[in-house]
Amino acid sequence: MKKIALNGAGLLVALFAAFPVYWMISTSLKPSREIFSSTPQPVPAHPTLEHYREILTGNLIPGVSFLDFFVNSAIVAVSTVVLSGLVALLAATAVARFRFTLRTSFLIMLLVVQMIPLEALVIPLFLMIQRLGLYNTLPSLILTYLGFSLPFAVWMLRGFVAAVPKELEEAAAIDGASRAQTFRRVLFPLVAPGLVATSIFSFITAWNELIFALTFINDQGRYTLPVAMTFFFGRDDTNWGPVMAASTLFTLPVIIFFLLVQRRMVSGLVAGAVKG
Amino acid sequence: MTTLTEVPETAAARENPARRRRRVDRLPYLLLLPALVIIGVLLLWPLGQVVAMSFYRLNSVRQLRGDREWPWVGLGNYTDILSDPFFLTVLRNTVLFAAANVLLTMVLGTLVGLLLNRLGRKMATFVASCVMLAWATPALTGTIVWKWIFDDTSGLVTWLFNALPDGLSNSLFGRSDWTGYGWFNSPLLFFAILTLVVVWHSFPFIAVSVLAGLKSVPSELHEAARVDGASPWRVFWKITFPLLRPVFGILIVLSTIWDFKVFTQQFVLAGGTQDRPTFMLSIYSYAEAFSPPPKYGLGAAIAVILTLILLVVTGFYVRMVLRQEDES
């Protein structure tokens, strides 16, 4: 009896959590008359890819297609990932491998800057981007997201570097490897899985971001996907089929990446709170 | 391995201790340098800059580019904001929204965490996977889907209310035809839906963290209490909660910080920055700065106020994390 109640509650939670995602995908596969029918169909009765075809072949905004926005978003996200991973790896090595005077101060600063409300930085960063002449360019976003993703990336990578036994590097040093060689041949391959996990977080940060992309990009051809989507839907009467198809294409990479690394998210954010 | 590492190392140290020490001292700073520069230029400098900008009257992009001068107004922007009764509305919205969302997120998240801990293996995996989906969904698309669910013609909620028996619907709400009903038109209803969206997005993190905490706590205590006939309510408050107090502390602080600066969900649900009665601090700051006519100085002042509020909350957070790093 109690078991049934628990399982029932579990199913309710699962339904609440997963339903919107299900509904997004399901709507994207329904022909328009099913979407706008007066009795909603729980499952697409006549599944179709017409909405996907429409957004992938047609233009979301005159002259610019969904794929263009997808490419813009990918350029921004991948550049952010590469830069932030590289810089974070150097900093994480410093923090995890060396004891130096400012080490603790740096760690505290990392914690504090993660709490800066990024929303409050739109205005000063807009100023900086204007001054640098980067307004309306994708590098303006790469730079911004690099700053946003770096503190968490260092914080997370620090644990991965610390987990690599120091003896391995020492052994390499004894065998005559230079510091750079040790870093490249010993530490780097062992930290690589952690670097992948960290990169995924930076990717998701950059991929999802809306406010700055909305503010720094003026030219529709340079919109990232999130900006394009806010423009795309609700222009006239919202045509939910293509909107849901676009949402699905935008969401799926994130969900897949996220599921790969979600474990580390908890341990990263509640760092040290749970012992053992 | 140990002998190998020990012997040459001591030899190296004997050979040239000074050189070795100097190299070790400089390298970490070199490694940190790029990160420090980036954090400094892209986070700390703008943070200072937003404070500086809040003391000027900045109403055109040309001023930002440096083509025109910046008239100093001192605390003028702040007095403008604080003397405007609208600011009180915004502040009330922000605080009430954050309080309600933190409370609901924590309660729901904790309940789901406890539930996941009690479910059988297969069921727990299934429910946890579904919960992960809500967490993984980007704020943007998650909100768009909820907006579609509340669509005034073909949305699921509109259909559900239309499906209510007319008599019941009439006596409860005074209407039976819900087609065309604007779910987002009244501020209260708007905030209710926004709360639904935000809680949906944020309860998974709480649930998973609470679950992780529960797994780290020995289960004998719970079993003993249950055998002694303690009610689940008592078991939670007398055993679970005290053991997980540090986890709850951090979760509450993080949720507070996140819920104070909700932007994307509100922006998408409201369809931009026109819906002033539902403004909260972050969207208010953005709208003042970027909706024509632009008022960058005023927006900056609002952003500073938001930051100051969050600074207090962050103080708690850092203290908590540091205390726990010390303990472990």
From TrEMBL, chain A:
<dbReference type="InterPro" id="IPR035906">
    <property type="entry name" value="MetI-like_sf"/>
</dbReference>
<feature type="transmembrane region" description="Helical">
    <location>
        <begin position="186"/>
        <end position="207"/>
    </location>
</feature>
<feature type="domain" description="ABC transmembrane type-1">
    <location>
        <begin position="70"/>
        <end position="261"/>
    </location>
</feature>
<keyword id="KW-1133">Transmembrane helix</keyword>
<feature type="transmembrane region" description="Helical">
    <location>
        <begin position="69"/>
        <end position="94"/>
    </location>
</feature>
<feature type="transmembrane region" description="Helical">
    <location>
        <begin position="5"/>
        <end position="25"/>
    </location>
</feature>
<keyword id="KW-0472">Membrane</keyword>
<dbReference type="InterPro" id="IPR000515">
    <property type="entry name" value="MetI-like"/>
</dbReference>
<feature type="transmembrane region" description="Helical">
    <location>
        <begin position="106"/>
        <end position="129"/>
    </location>
</feature>
<feature type="transmembrane region" description="Helical">
    <location>
        <begin position="141"/>
        <end position="165"/>
    </location>
</feature>
<keyword id="KW-0813">Transport</keyword>
<keyword id="KW-1003">Cell membrane</keyword>
<dbReference type="GO" id="GO:0055085">
    <property type="term" value="P:transmembrane transport"/>
</dbReference>
<feature type="transmembrane region" description="Helical">
    <location>
        <begin position="240"/>
        <end position="261"/>
    </location>
</feature>
<dbReference type="Pfam" id="PF00528">
    <property type="entry name" value="BPD_transp_1"/>
</dbReference>
<dbReference type="InterPro" id="IPR050901">
    <property type="entry name" value="BP-dep_ABC_trans_perm"/>
</dbReference>
<dbReference type="GO" id="GO:0005886">
    <property type="term" value="C:plasma membrane"/>
</dbReference>
<keyword id="KW-0812">Transmembrane</keyword>
<comment type="similarity">
    <text>Belongs to the binding-protein-dependent transport system permease family.</text>
</comment>
<protein>
    <submittedName>
        <fullName>Carbohydrate ABC transporter permease</fullName>
    </submittedName>
</protein>
UniProtKB/TrEMBL annotation, chain B:
<protein>
    <submittedName>
        <fullName>Sugar ABC transporter permease</fullName>
    </submittedName>
</protein>
<keyword id="KW-1133">Transmembrane helix</keyword>
<feature type="transmembrane region" description="Helical">
    <location>
        <begin position="296"/>
        <end position="318"/>
    </location>
</feature>
<dbReference type="InterPro" id="IPR000515">
    <property type="entry name" value="MetI-like"/>
</dbReference>
<keyword id="KW-0812">Transmembrane</keyword>
<dbReference type="Pfam" id="PF00528">
    <property type="entry name" value="BPD_transp_1"/>
</dbReference>
<feature type="transmembrane region" description="Helical">
    <location>
        <begin position="188"/>
        <end position="214"/>
    </location>
</feature>
<keyword id="KW-0472">Membrane</keyword>
<feature type="domain" description="ABC transmembrane type-1">
    <location>
        <begin position="91"/>
        <end position="317"/>
    </location>
</feature>
<dbReference type="InterPro" id="IPR050809">
    <property type="entry name" value="UgpAE/MalFG_permease"/>
</dbReference>
<dbReference type="InterPro" id="IPR035906">
    <property type="entry name" value="MetI-like_sf"/>
</dbReference>
<keyword id="KW-1003">Cell membrane</keyword>
<dbReference type="GO" id="GO:0005886">
    <property type="term" value="C:plasma membrane"/>
</dbReference>
<dbReference type="GO" id="GO:0055085">
    <property type="term" value="P:transmembrane transport"/>
</dbReference>
<feature type="transmembrane region" description="Helical">
    <location>
        <begin position="29"/>
        <end position="48"/>
    </location>
</feature>
<keyword id="KW-0813">Transport</keyword>
<feature type="transmembrane region" description="Helical">
    <location>
        <begin position="235"/>
        <end position="258"/>
    </location>
</feature>
<feature type="transmembrane region" description="Helical">
    <location>
        <begin position="95"/>
        <end position="116"/>
    </location>
</feature>
<feature type="transmembrane region" description="Helical">
    <location>
        <begin position="123"/>
        <end position="149"/>
    </location>
</feature>
<comment type="similarity">
    <text>Belongs to the binding-protein-dependent transport system permease family.</text>
</comment>
